[in-house]
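Run log, item B.
One chain of 590 residues. Sequence copied directly from the ordering sheet:
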Amino acid sequence: MHAAASPPAATSEQDAAIVIDRVDKFFGNVHALRSLSAKIDYSRLTGLAGPDGAGKTTLMRILTGLLAPDAGCVTLAGFDVVKDNDAIHVASGYMPQRFGLYEDLTVMENMRLYAQLRGMDTGQHADLFARLLDFTRLAPFTSRLAGKLSGGMKQKLGLACALMARPRVLLLDEPGVGVDPVSRQDLWRMVQALTGEGMAVVWSTAYLDEAERCDSVLLLNEGRLVFDGPPGELTGRLKNRSFRLEAAGAQRRAILAEALDLESVGDGVIQGAGIRIVLRADAGIEQIQALASRAGASLTPVPARFEDAFIDLLGGGPGGTSALAEHLPPVELPSDIAVSCRNLTKRFGDFVATDNVSFEVRKGEIFGLLGPNGAGKSTTFKMLCGLLKPTSGEAHVADLDLRRAPGAAKAQLGYMAQKFSLYGLLSVHQNLEFSAGVYGLDSATRRKRIEEMIRIFDLHDWLSAAPDSLPLGHKQRLALACALMHHPPVLFLDEPTSGVDPVTRREFWTHINGLARKGVTIMVTTHFMDEAEYCDRVAMLYRARLIALDTPDALKRGAASTDRPDPAMEDAFIHLVETSALADEVKAGA
């Protein structure tokens, strides 16, 4: 590794960690970044936010020196990212979206390897390793293979490796993707400690609740910088425009769909038994008051969120009508219980992944399965889908026993996997054809369903493309189209919107709400706590066991305290995990 160059002479920007000056970047005909200028300071956490395809990752790769701008210039810690490329790699730490851990190496072996790649003598830095392991709470896991770590622990190991050379600037590209709230809280704790020591940290994210916690935010859209400043400054623009329809109850999905189609409403989401509504600029409250009156719901002003302001800045969210659901006939099932499991258990050797789990899911219900990384959600999911055979216990889908009639049961469900169950060697159109063929659709029905999915999910321009080349939002649409090709009465969604921006997430949930209103039963796992609010009920898993099962509002009430009288769903999640962990410690001590 080359020695670091000396920084240039002091300028008016000498106190800035990063200076971006009129940067443009093209990929063929795609203008990824458009005359972008911004300044990022030391001792601050700066969020880099925007929808899918906004240019976040392109900018991050330019900041690391992995891409060169086509116009303009960038300096990091006083070094030009093009002219002083070697110095950039010394002055910065970078954690990409898909961090390059070596899964067949242990935690300590990964750390030693990254130290060597940084040109460090690993024998001289035992104290640094010890500090990083303590900082990331990975000290008890140094001999564990990276491939055996949970998602949250992998992110912590990635952070430890990125901090190996004690960089002045830390660049994190969507570190919260696929990470549960408890692990995300640990990441925030570590990052805040780093900024407190003077480091500049850039946190790229598609999750606006993460951006809201940053000191400052750069908000991108279609390669342009549309906002630069503290989150509260943008949120302040929505004063007196955010409302909640309380006690909307069982009709909340129909009420939301109607509200989103009103001219005065720019955005809306379900929050437990209520609905959160954002009015357009200069819109009157009369339409939404009339809707609340018809629904027998009360209308209450609520503080604006950064996500509200983000959606408003982009012109509002999608409408409330799902073209997908409009094409589906009402679902008919032999009973009101669509999915059930009793004493469901799965062991891998001595390891218990799911431990004696029992619950029932009603027809037309949206049922959430939550838990920290490694809690057993995906294992339970796969057993209910017939993809894993239980060690013991029973699982039924549409009154069919997954042990005795696995083929018939699988025909009644659609499954959208955590990593998207698409075939990379097939084109988009071939993936649709394959899915239709797998479910045995006749040629006329197959042709009709494929044409419907192409139109509904706007896939015309991507039919000959490979799935991996699609933007994340379009990849998600394709995966959902394939899962629904046979019009299943039960739909399993395993972290379907991980990493997806709020606009695309709203489009996705418009379809899900529409499907539920047609009687489709939906089971979903998610680490995005606002999505859990859409569920009728939520089952919480921790250490392979079911520790809670109730409505989102009831779970939030259980986490209420004097300090936090109106807890969010994330607060409820953390409260349940901490309470269960404490009970386990007391039991072990006894």
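Observations after the first pass:
- The chain has 21 helices and 24 strands.
- Residues 168 and 199 are 5 Å apart (CA to CA).
Flagged for discussion on Thursday.
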